[in-house]
Amino acid sequence: MGAALQNLDYFAFVILFCIGLHTLVARPNLLKKLLGLNIMETAVFAFIVTSGMVDRGAAPIVDGGATGPFASPLPQALILTGIVVAVSISALALALIIEIYRQCGTIEADELKGAG
Amino acid sequence: MEVIDSRIVLAPAISLACALLIFISGRRAAWRSTLALGAAALKFAVILSLLPGSLQGTVYAYRLFDFPPGIGIAFRADALGMFFALVSSTLWVLTTVYAIGYMKDRPQKLRFFGFFSLCISTTVGIAFAENLLTLLLCYEALTVCTYPLLVHDETPEALRAGRKYLVYTLAGGALILFGVVMVQHLAGTLSLSQPGILPADAPPPMLLAVFWALVAGFGVKAAIMPLHGWLPSAMVAPTPVSALLHAVAVVKAGVFGLLRVVYNVFGVELLAVLGYAAWLAALAAFTIVAGSLMAMAQDNLKRRLAYSTVSQLSYIVLAAALLTPLAALAAIAHIANQAFAKITMFFVAGAVEQATGRRQVHELAGMGRVMPWTMGAFTVASLSFIGVPLFAGFVTKWYLSLGALQAEAWWFVLLMILSALLNAAYWLPIVYLAWFRAPRGLPARVGETGWLLLAPTLAAAAYVVLLGVTTRVPGMPFSLAEAAVNFVSGTRGGG
Amino acid sequence: MSAWLPLAAFVPLVAGALTSALARRRPRLAQGWALAAAAWTLLAATVLTRRLFLEGPFSYAMGGWAAPWGIELRFDAWSAASLFIALIMLAVLVYSGPYARDEIESRRLPWYYSLLLLNLGGMVGFACAGDLFNLFVFMELVSVSSYALVAVGGGRIAALAAFKYLLAGAVSSALVLFCIGVLHALTGSLNMADVALRLAEIDSRGPVVLALAGLSAGFMLKAALFPLHLWLPDAHAAAPCPVSAVLSALVVKIGIIGLLRTHAVFAGVEGLPMAAFGQVLAWLGALAIVAGALFALFQDDIKLMLAYSTVSNIGYIVLGLGLANHAAMTGAGIHVLNHAIIKATLFLAAGAIIHQTGSRTLRELRGVGRMMPWSALAVSIGALSIAGLPPTAGFLGKWYIALGAFAAGQPGFAAVLLLGALLIFAYYIRILNAFYFRAPIDDNMRSVREAPLPMLLPILFLAALCILGGLFGRWPVALVAPAVERLAGGG
To answer: Structure pTM?
Structure first.
C-alpha cells in the first residue's frame, strides 16, 4: 500500500495516458483524435518530470541562491524537447486537418472512410 | 585429376554474349541467324575440345564468385556434366538450324532467339555446376528464360500454359531451395564433387525431408508423375521450343538434377542404407507405365510426344534409383538416347504441321509417300523407343535390365518388356498410317520438307542409329557415359 | 578529423532548415542545394565507415563533455547503415528533379527538398545516436518530416494517409518517450551503454520488463510489424513515388534499428524473458511474411503491391532477429541493407512508369515493357531480387535466415520463409507478365516514352546494385558480422 501511495502520481499519469489513447482511438472526429494525442503526450511529460522530482528539491538553477537538493534537470530538458516535438506534430496535424476539410468537406472519420 | 580450365565458363558465356548481342542488335534476320548459329557451333566446338581430356578422367574446374563462406558460384566438368553438356550443345546446333527455318515467317524473332540463347547458356551452367547453389541458380534462370519462349504466341491458351508452367516450376524451385538449405545445414557444404556429402549420422527425419524435398523439386521438371502436369500443356509453344523443352534443356535439367542428388548429394552407399530409393523406383515405374497409357489415348501428335517424354524420362529416374553401376550406365546413356530420338520426332511433327497444317495423328495417313525422308526419320525414332536392337533405345533397355538384375530386382526387366510393348502400341500405328495408307485431302503442292527443317531431322535420326551401334567404339558418347559411371559410383567400374 | 561524425548528421539538418530561405527567390535552386548536402553526407558516411573498418567502433563526445554525462555519438556496425541511407537518398534526390517538377506545386518545392534533407539528417543521427535522448530526438525528426512528406504532393488521399500515419507514429513516439522516462527513472542515466550496465544491477524486474515491452512495441509500430502495420500501405502508396522509396527503403528501418538498440541495452540483464520475447518476434515475423505477401497478391495498384511487399520483407528481418542465432541475425542485418536497395529500385522504377503513363493499376500498365524498356528492366531486376533468386541481393539475407531457422531447431520457419518467397514471386510475375506479355488496353500506351535521364540514371544504378550486392555479398556480411557477434553471442 505504501508503494502504491508513493507512486500515486505515476499511476495517475499512466491512467491519463490511457485516457488519451482511448480518445485517439475511439473518437471519430479528427480534431478530437488530435486532442487525445496531446493528452497522451502531456501524460508522458508529466510522468517524466515527476520522476526527476526530489522531495523539497529546489529548481535546478545554479545561480538562484538556493542550495541543497536540486530537482534533476535532465528530465526537464528531456521533456522540453518533447514538448517542442509535440507542438510541431500538432501544428502539422492541424494543417493536415484543414487540408482534409478543404478537400473532403468533413473531418469525421466514419464519413471519411467512404471518401478516402 | 582436377585441372583449372576457363573453357567450362567460356561455353555458357558464349551463348550469354550471343543473347546480349541479339537483344541489342538483332533486328536484321541474316545477322541474327548468323549470330545464333555461330554461337551454337562455337560452343559445341569448345565443349568438344574438352572431350578427350574427360575420357581420360580429367575433371575441369573453375571458381567464379565466392559468397561467404564457402558457398559460391563455381563450375566443375566431370564426366557426367560433360555428357549432359555435350548432348545439349549438339542438339542446340540442330535446333538452331531448325528454328531459323521454322520461325522464318513468324513474329517476335528477336525475343525468341535472344531467350533461346540464354536457355542454352543456363543449361550448360547446370551441366557444369560445381555445387548445389550454382546448380539452383542456373536451374531457376532456365525457368525464367524459357517462359518467354513458351508464351511466344501470346494467345490466351499460351498464357494459361505459361502460368501453369511457372506455378509448377517455381514451386519445384522453392522445394529445391528448402532442400539445399537443409543440405548446407547438415553437411556444411554444397559441393557436388564427392560421391555423397550428407553425413550418415544425420537425424533420419531430416534426411527423409531432404530426400523428398529435392526429389519433388527436381521431379517437377523431370516430369515424374504426378508433377508432370505442366508438360502436355506446354505443347502450345512453337515446335522448336517443344523440342527444346522436351529433348534438351528443361526436362533433362530436371533429370540431371535428380542424378546429382542420387549420386553426389546422398551417394549410392547412403541411399542403399536408407532405402528411400525403392520409393523413387516405384514412382518411376508408375510413371513409365501411366505415361505410356496416356500417350496411347492422345490423338494430338505433340501431346502424344509429350506423354511419351514423361514416360521415357522415368527410365532415367528408375535407372538411377536402382543404385547399381550398370543401371547408372543406362541412366546416363538414356539422357542422350531419349533426347535424340525425341527431338527427331518433334522436328517431324513441326515439319508436318508447317507443310500441311495437320496436328492430329489420324490425319497423318500417307505422309510417308509425300515426305519419305521426314517420315523415315520418324520411323527410326519410333524403332528406337520400342527398343529394336541397333537403335539407341535398345542400349538403354539392355543396360537397365542388366542393372535391375544386378540389383536383384528382376521384375523391372518385365517392366522393360511391358514398356516396349506399350511403345509399340502407340508408335507403330503412326508408322503404319504413314507408309501403308493413302494420303487424303492433301493439296498437290505439298512435298518433302525444306532442307532447313529436314537436315536437322535427318542428323538427329542418324545420331539415333549411331548411338545404338557404337557402344563398343572408344571416343563415342557411350564411353563417356562409362567414364561418368566411374565417377559417380566411386571406385566401382562400369559395364 | 573526428568532427566528421556530428557533421554527418548536422549538415543535412542545417541545410534542410536553410533550404526554404535560400530558395525563396529561385525554387529551382532547392534541388541543387539538397544534392550538395546529400553528397556531402555520403562523403562523410564513407569516411566514417572506412574508419570503422580500420579501427572498430568509435565515439564522439559533443562539446567535449565525456559520456555518460555528456551527449555521445557512437559509430558502430549498425551505424554503417548511414552509408546506404545517404546513397539511396542521393539517388532519390537526383531522381526528384524531373519528377518533383511535374508532380509537386512549385511553391512547395523548396519544402519538399527541405523535408528530405531533414529526413536524411534525422536518419543518420538516429543510426549514430549513443544515448536515448538523442535517439528520441532524431527519431522524431525522421517521423515528422515523413508525415509531412507523405502529404507534400497534395490531394485528399495523401492528406488522409498522412494523418493516419501521423497518429500511428505519434502514438509510438509517445510510448518510446514514456519508456525512456522509465529507464531514466530506474537508472538515472540516458547514455545507452551506461543504462545497460546499470540495469543489470537493479533488483525489481517489473519496471524493467515494462520498459522493454513498451520500447519494443513502440519500435514495432514504427517498423510496421504485423499486426501494427495498418498505417503503412496507405502512407507508402499515397506518397509521391520518390518519397515512397525513402519511406519503404529507409524510414521503416528506423524501427528495426530501434529494436536492435533496445535489445543491446537489455541484453545484459538477467532474468528477462528474452527467449520468449524472441519467439514472439519470430512468430510475428512469420505472420508478417505470409500476410504481407497474400495482401500484395490481391492488389491491382502497383504501389499498394509494393507497400504490402515491404510489410512482408519487414517480417523476414524480424524473423531473423527473433531467431537470435548467429546465422539468422546475419541474415536479418544483410536484409536490412539489401531490401533498402531493392525497394528503392522498385519504387523509383515503378514511379518512373507511373509518371510517364499516368496509370497505377496493372490493367492499365499492360504492355509498358515495350515502351519503357529500361524502367521495366529495372522493375524486373528488382522483382527477381526481392523474390530471392541467386545471385541477386535478396538471396543472401533469406539464405542466412533459413539456415538460422534450422540451426535454432525450428525448420517450420524455413518453410514459411520459402512459402513467402513463392508468394512474392507470384505477384511479381503478375507485374512482369502485365508489362511484357499482355497487349495494351488502349492506344494511349503508344505515345508513352522512356523516363528522362535524371530519373533513369538512379534507377539503373540501384538496379545494378541489386545484382552487384548479391555477387559481392561477402562484404555486407563482413560489415554486419561484428555487430552480430556481440548481439548473438550475448542473447
So the answer is: 0.84
CB contact under 8 A, C157 and A82: no
Residues with Cβ within 8 Å of C103's Cβ and at least 6 positions away in sequence, in order, are C153, C240, C355
Q: What CATH number is associated with residue A6?
A: 1.10.287.3510
**Exposure b/e, B211-234, CB count within 10 A at least 16 = b:** bbbbbbbbbbbbbbbebbbbbbbb
CA of C87 to nearest chain A CA: how many angstroms apart? Answer: 28
* Beta-carbon pairs below 8 A across chains A and C: 93
CB-nearest partner of C159 from A52, A82, A100 = A100
Number of domains within chain A: 1
The Cα of C159 is separated from the nearest Cα of chain A by a number of Å equal to 6
CB-CB neighbors (< 8 A) of C433 in chain B: 159, 163
For chain C, what percentages of helix, strand and coil (3-state, to nearest 5) are there? 80, 5, 20
224-253 in C: which are within 8 Å (CB) of B?
A: none
Decide if C167 and A44 are in contact by the 8 Å CB cutoff. Answer: no
Strand-pair partners of B73: B65
**In contact, C438 and C328? CB cutoff 8 Å:** no
Distance from CA of A65 to the nearest CA of C (A): 24
Identify the bridge partners of residue A58 per DSSP, sorted by sequence position. Answer: A70
List the pLDDT tens digit at each of the 495 positions of chain B: 677 877 878 888 888 888 888 887 767 777 788 888 888 888 888 888 888 777 777 777 887 777 655 577 888 888 888 888 888 888 888 888 888 888 887 777 778 888 888 888 899 999 998 888 889 888 888 988 888 888 888 788 888 888 888 888 888 888 898 898 888 888 888 888 877 788 878 888 888 888 999 999 999 888 888 888 888 888 888 888 888 876 778 899 999 999 998 888 888 888 888 888 888 888 899 999 999 999 888 888 888 888 998 998 999 998 888 888 888 888 888 888 888 899 999 998 888 888 888 888 888 878 888 888 888 889 888 888 888 888 888 888 888 888 888 877 778 888 888 888 888 888 888 888 888 887 777 776 666 777 778 888 888 888 888 888 777 766 677 777 777 777 665 433 333
B93 burial level (CB within 10 Å; 0-12, 13-18, 19+): buried
Whether A89 is covered by a domain: the verdict is: yes
Q: By CA distance, what is C144's nearest residue in A?
A: A89
**Amino acid letter for position C426:** A
C217 touches chain A (CB under 8 A): no
Which ipTM did the prediction report? 0.89
CB atoms within 10 A of CB C35: 16
Q: Which of B331, B277, B407, B325 is nearest to B84 (CA)?
A: B331
Coil, helix or strand at residue A58: strand
Nearest Cβ partner for C389 among B140, B167, B181: B140
In whole angstroms, give the CA distance from residue C61 to residue C68. Answer: 9
Domain coverage including residue A29: 2-55+68-115
Which of the other chains make 3 or more beta carbon contacts under 8 angstroms with chain C? Answer: A, B
> B: neighbours with 3+ CB pairs under 8 Å?
C
Cβ of A85 within 8 Å of Cβ of C144? The answer is yes
Judging contacts by C-beta atoms under 8 Å, the chain A residues touching residue C185 are 48, 51-52
Q: Find chain B residues with C-beta within 8 A of C366's C-beta.
A: none
Identify the CA nearest to C121 among candidates C40, C29, C240, C218. Answer: C40
> Furthest-apart CA pair in chain C: how many Å?
73
Report yes or no: A75 and A52 within 8 Å, Cβ to Cβ.
yes
Among C243, C287, C214, CA closest to C113? C243
Interface test with C, best of A7, A78, A107, A113 (most C CBs within 10 A): A78
Q: What residues of B are in contact with residue C373 (Cβ under 8 Å)?
A: none
